[in-house]
Design a protein that fits this description.
about 80 residues, about 0% strand
């Protein structure tokens, strides 16, 4: 995050965390190149949750219908 904020130089950040400056540059480039995926994934997760919730509601409805039919048939047998 410090590298993205650019308040300190790459050299200063590397010295602070005792890592090679090229590693910070690589991480920064990777983040900038792929940052849009974070937001796409969030939208996909939200859509996936909505789809799962709809499926759950359909299955509960079907279970309820089958239970009513089962109870009806039990009464007819006795």
């Amino acid at each position: 995050m410090e590298a993205l904020k650019e308040r300190s130089s790459i050299q200063e950040i590397a010295a602070k965390y005792e890592i090679h400056p090229q590693q910070i540059t690589d991480w920064k480039r990777h983040f900038v190149d792929n940052s849009d995926l974070v937001f796409d994934r969030a939208n996909k997760v939200d859509q996936g949750n909505a789809d799962k919730q709809k499926l759950i509601e359909q299955l509960y409805s079907q279970i309820g219908q089958l239970k009513v039919e089962n109870d009806f048939l039990k009464k007819k047998l006795y």
